Predict the structure.
Amino acid sequence: MNRKKTAIYPGSFDPLTYGHLDIIERACEIFDEIIVSIFVNPNKKSLFDLEERIDILKNVLKNYNSVKIDYFEGLLTDYLRQKDIKVVIRGLRAVSDLEYEFQYAAANRTLYPEIETVFFMPRLRYSYLSSSVIREIAKFGGDVSKMVPPYVAEKIKEKYYKIK
Ligand code: ADP
């Protein structure tokens, strides 16, 4: 059967960085369709709310024809079952990511044995980037233009201008 190869890339994307984008571009080379899906965590205070994060993803990824945007709450494995998708994409920045990612992938496999987690490594120059680093720099008015796409940098500026 020649079924379209679709994978889900779940994450907080608060906000999207060049590291996430690097992973998405690599995944696009291998899969027919990627669903970038925002995990909505009601217990975590986010910088950008869900609507803003969706707007950012839609804008930055508008020319990526094989990418779709979505969001989910609750267990990733329930969401995968609903969508009938069995491949999860994750990024590995450094050895330090491995422990958490190993636990996450193993737990997901226990809950849903048919799924496969595929890891991509970003370019070395993005391997230090995380959304929390961006939020920290942004809070103090630092320049994040080398770390996030221009649209994200613009949204960060707007946000902190409003807060001040
Ligand atoms: P963060 O850890 O930055 O808050 P997310 O929760 O949005 O990010 O992460 C979603 C996935 O993207 C995770 O697998 C994470 O390891 C990966 N990821 C995040 N930043 C990078 C990066 N700079 N390079 C590669 N993968 C990354």
Notes: The helical segments are 18-30, 50-60, 76-83, 95-111, 131-139, 150-163. The radius of gyration is 16 Å.
